C-alpha cells in the first residue's frame, strides 16, 4: 500500500561511531524522501566524524577511519542535509530513540537550526514491536518476504524501512489494537498523524526520553533516583542536580529542555517578587 501524504516524509538511517547519543558521531547518513506524488529522492553521504571509529563498530557497518578520512564533516554538510529534509515528516527504524536524537545533536553542534516543531515522527520499529516483536532483518523478511542482504548499509536500511511500513499498512488493515487504557483502536492506518501517534512510546519532553510529560502534562524525570518526580520541583529543592546534569554526559537536546525548565522556574520566582 502506498502512503497517503499531505507533505513529504523522509525515511532516514544513520551509521555511527557508537550508540551514545551525546558523544558518538555520524559516519554515514542516507535519506529516502517520499514526495506527495509517491516519487522518491535519495541522498546518501559519508561523514568524517572527527573522532576515531572503534574497530568493533567498523565490524558492524563496514565503515573505517580510512573510508571517511576525506569525507566532509557534519558541519560542512549540515545545511545541505537540512535543505534536503525540508519540512518533511521523519521516519526510521528505532528513529525516535536513537536516529532523531543523534541527528539533532549533530545539528546543534553545527549551529544549524533544524526545527522539529510541526513534524511527525513515524518509528517503524515501534509499530513492529507492538504488533510483531522482531529485528529489522526479521521485519523485512516477515513483512516483505525478502532477505536484507545489505544490512548496516544506511541506504539499504532506509529503503527497507520504507518498504516495511507500506507492507505494515497492507498487513494490519482493519486490525484492532488494545491500548493500555483499554481503548480499542485501529492504529496502523494510512495516515501519518495516526502512525506518528502509534509510534510514540512515551510523551517525551526531550528527544531521547530522559524527561517525559506525566498525565497532567508536567515534565518529570524518566530515569534515576528522581524518576517520576517533577523536574521543576527537584531543581527547586536541589539546584545541584541541575548542575550535575549540565556537566554530565547528557545530550545537548536534553540540556536545552532542562535549561528551559530552570529558566521558567526562575522567571516564576521573579514574577512573584
Can you characterise this structure?
The mean pLDDT is 91. The longest helix is centred in the C-terminal third of the chain and has 21 residues. The chain has two domains: 191 residues, Ribonuclease H-like superfamily/Ribonuclease H (Nucleotidyltransferase, domain 5), CATH 3.30.420.10; 62 residues, no CATH class. It is of the alpha/beta class. A five-stranded mixed β-sheet has the order 3-2-1-4-5, sandwiched between helices. A two-stranded antiparallel ribbon has the order 6-7. A two-stranded antiparallel ribbon has the order 8-9.
Short synopsis of the structure:
It contains eleven helices and nine strands. It has 273 residues and is α/β, with parallel strands linked by helices. The strands form three sheets. The chain has a five-stranded mixed β-sheet, sandwiched between helices. A two-stranded antiparallel ribbon has the order 6-7.
